[in-house]
Amino acid sequence: MIKVLVPLVKSSNFTFVGQRTSTAGIYNFNNKFYTTNTNTSPIGSVASTVPRNRKVIVVTSGKGGVGKTTTSASIAFGLAQKGFKTCVIDFDIGLRNLDIHFGMERRIVFDFINLINNDCKLNQALVKDRRNPNLFLLAASQTKDKTALKMDGVERVLEELRDNFDYIVCDSPAGIESGSHHAMFWSDIAIITTNPELSSLRDSDTMLGIIASKSKRALENKEPVDVSLLITRYSPERVASGGMLSVKDIQENLGIKLLGIIPESSDILDCTNLGKPTITLDDNSDAAEAYRDTIDRFLGENVPFRFLEPKPTGILSKLMSKFK
Ligand SMILES: Nc1ncnc2c1ncn2[C@@H]1O[C@H](COP(=O)(O)OP(=O)(O)O)[C@@H](O)[C@H]1O
Ligand SMILES: [Mg+2]
């Protein structure tokens, strides 16, 4: 079979390509990059609007149970809904649960560690969402071996994903051990997920320090990781009664740009139980609306923050608010 070599656009951020020219059908001749196929992707073509150097998004926090996995599911689904080919990776090795948020738990045959160990090909490990053809999940392995994530293996998988996707959303586990370090290390963009409480804030601050000093971008003296803040489980009622930190308190403390504020909502648990990301709910759900606003802001729109005021409690004011 005759293979046609098609030149690829060469970007200054293509530094990894030379190292993994044997994968994804990409070859390096005289410092120019070629592919043997006009569409190397088993997943479909990727948009040209996403800068190649800003594709890997980590959703991280330091502290556990703040809403990272809930957020990763909605951010990935929301980006895919906007037409971006999106892959979401569960980095919580040994404790996978992102698959449950998509109702995919029975469809996983191969996982992230299988892919790292070359037990399967990329398209065998990716699980396609049934509602959203732009969205794919790479599940975490259930292995107890915390050293299973190898530096060169993660790098190779992420590079292959960069070639095939517009965005790669990495759901970080809690703490600062292997999975969370890997998810943070390769990121171009970090969404720091925080609850309005001091312990969560302190852990987020620690994570900001780690990203600034230990990410790949920091080690290579490149443009820093783009960090922004997502506040989850925000309750204006508790802020008003003095039982919770306000948005202003949190922002002043962390000093990073605000991407979103997701209200405390019982919709979240219902969604997880039904295997659907919160963002799939209609506009009766404040949490879903807040995630949609977050996606629009992420994509550069100027969207005002909502759901910051306590809800009316009297019957009359509740009725009035319906007609506003
Ligand atoms: N906005 C929210 N309102 C209410 N509960 C939430 C919200 N976000 C997350 N939760 C709940 O918090 C718990 C932890 O969420 P999860 O996304 O698993 O956090 P993490 O990945 O940081 O450990 C879950 O029980 C989830 O349902
Ligand atoms: Mg999680």
Automatic annotation (TrEMBL):
Q: Which InterPro entries match?
A: AAA_dom, MinD, P-loop_NTPase, ParA/MinD_ATPase
- Domain named AAA is located at 55-212
Its transmembrane ranges are none
Alphabetic keyword roster: ATP-binding, Nucleotide-binding
Report the GO molecular function annotations.
Answer: ATP binding; ATP hydrolysis activity
One record GO biological process: negative regulation of cell division
User: One GO term of the cellular component aspect?
Assistant: cytoplasmic side of plasma membrane
Q: Which Gene3D superfamilies match?
A: P-loop containing nucleotide triphosphate hydrolases (3.40.50.300)
Name the protein family: Belongs to the ParA family. MinD subfamily.
Q: What is this protein called?
A: AAA domain-containing protein
**Species this chain originates from:** Polysphondylium violaceum
